[in-house]
Write a structure and sequence with these properties.
By secondary structure, this protein is an alpha/beta fold. It has a domain of 146 residues. It contains eleven helices and ten strands. Strands 3-2-5-6 form a four-stranded antiparallel sheet, with no helix packed on it. Helix 3 runs parallel beside helix 4 and helix 9 runs parallel beside helix 11. The radius of gyration is 21 Å and the shape is globular. The two termini are 29 Å apart.
Length: 331
C-alpha cells in the first residue's frame, strides 16, 4: 500500500515569522535552537530558530503543538519529524553566543509523545523521527514503543559496540527508514568522492587539517565499498560512482527496515549538499537546483527521463515472489 505524501515537521520556525508573531508568549525570545558539537559538526550548530517554552506549552495544554500536528497530518500519509530528539530536550543557545555555550533544556517527553501518537492515530498516519546526531539514552526505545520509526543512514550504521566496522544488513533495526543520506548530509556521489570534506574546509568548518579529514573519510568509504563487494552488490574493483550509488541502495533494500528513502539528487548524480548545518550566509542553503555531476541544473523532465534514475528504480523495485507454473515444484 502506498504511503502518499510525507510531510516534514521542522525543528523550529523563523524568528520573524507568523508563528512567533501570533504566539509570542510561547517562544523563548533571545534564545536559539541548535546542537552541541558532534562527529560531523565539531563546532556545534546554531539554527537561528526560537525554541518553544516548555512551561507555556504545558500550561496551555499543548494547544499550539496539537494545532500544528493536526494541520500537517490532515493531508499526509506520513510525517517526518526533523530532530525528533527535540520532543525530549533541545540545545538552547543564548543570542550572540557560540553553540558551545549552549545547554540542554528538557521538555515533557511523555506529554509531547502522547499528543503526537494520538493525532497520528486519528489521522491514520505513519511517523518517522530523524534520530541522528547526539541522541540521549532511552530516546530510541521510547519512540519504538510508540510506533515511531527511526532513521538509519548507511554511513553511520556501524557495530559501535563491537569492532566498529560497517553493520551487516541483517543487523539493522527494523523499525526505521533506511537511507543513504538526508538533506543535512552529503549526497552519495559527494560522499564517494570526498567533495563534502573539501567544501567544509573551504568554508572554514573543519577543526582538524584537511588531510586528516580526507584520510578518515576515505577510510570510512573504502570499508563500506569493501563490504558491498563482499556481499556481491558491487563488482570488486569497480570504481564507477554510478554503480556504487546503485550498490548502496541495493544494500538498503537488503536490510529489514520497514521503509527505504531515496535522496532525489542521488538519482542524477548531484554532488552538492542542499543544506550545510552550522552555516547561515556562507552557503546557499535550500537555493540550489538539482544538478548533474558537472553541476548543470536539470529540469523535472530531464530527471524523470534520466537513465540513472531508471537504473536506480530497478534496484528499488519490489521483487514479485516466484510462482511455480503448474506441475513445477518450487525449490
Amino acid at each position: 500500500m502506498g504511503v502518499g505524501i510525507v510531510h516534514d515537521l521542522a525543528v523550529g520556525v523563523h524568528p520573524a515569522g507568523a508563528d512567533t508573531w501570533s504566539q509570542q508568549e510561547a517562544f523563548a525570545h533571545g534564545m536559539s535552537v541548535g546542537a552541541p558539537p558532534d562527529a560531523f559538526n565539531a563546532r556545534g550548530q546554531d539554527w537561528g530558530l526560537p525554541p518553544w517554552r516548555p512551561d507555556v506549552l504545558a500550561a496551555t495544554g499543548y494547544a499550539a503543538y496539537r494545532g500544528l500536528l493536526r494541520g500537517l497530518l490532515a493531508h499526509a500519509g506520513a510525517l517526518r519529524i526533523d530532530h525528533v530528539m527535540g520532543l525530549f530536550r533541545l540545545w538552547w543557545v543564548p543570542e550572540g553566543r557560540p553553540p558551545t555555550d549552549g545547554t540542554y533544556v528538557a521538555y515533557d517527553a511523555e506529554a509531547m509523545l502522547a499528543v503526537l501518537v494520538l493525532e497520528a492515530h486519528r489521522a491514520r498516519t505513519a511517523v518517522v523521527g530523524e534520530d541522528l546526531g547526539t541522541v540521549a539514552p532511552g530516546v530510541r526505545e521510547a519512540l519504538a514503543r510508540r510506533g515511531v520509526l527511526g532513521t538509519s543512514v548507511l554511513w553511520f550504521e556501524r557495530d559501535w559496540e563491537g569492532d566498529g566496522r560497517p553493520l551487516a544488513p541483517e543487523k539493522w533495526r527494523r523499525d526505521c527508514l533506511a537511507t543513504a543520506t538526508t538533506h543535512d548530509l552529503p549526497s552519495t556521489a559527494a560522499r564517494l568522492t570526498g567533495d563534502h570534506v573539501t567544501l567544509r574546509h573551504r568554508l572554514g568548518l573543519l577543526t582538524r587539517s584537511l588531510e586528516e579529514e580526507l584520510t578518515e573519510d576515505a577510510t570510512d568509504t573504502a570499508e563500506w565499498l569493501a563490504l558491498l563487494a563482499r556481499l556481491r552488490m558491487l563488482p570488486e574493483g569497480d570504481g564507477d560512482e554510478e554503480a556504487a550509488v546503485r550498490a548502496v541502495h541495493r544494500f538498503l533494500r537488503r536490510t529489514p527496515a520497514r521503509m527505504t528513502g531515496v535522496w532525489l539528487p542521488d538519482t542524477v548524480g548531484d554532488r552538492r549538499p542542499q543544506n550545510l548545518p552550522g552555516t547561515w550566509d556562507q552557503y546557499p542553503n535550500w537555493r540550489l537546483p538539482i544538478a548533474d555531476p558537472e553541476g548543470h541544473p536539470v529540469t523535472l523532465e530531464e530527471i524523470t527521463a534520466s537513465p540513472r534514475l531508471h537504473a536506480l528504480m530497478e534496484v528499488l523495485r519490489p521483487r514479485k515472489p516466484h510462482t511455480a507454473p503448474p506441475g513445477e515444484r518450487r525449490p
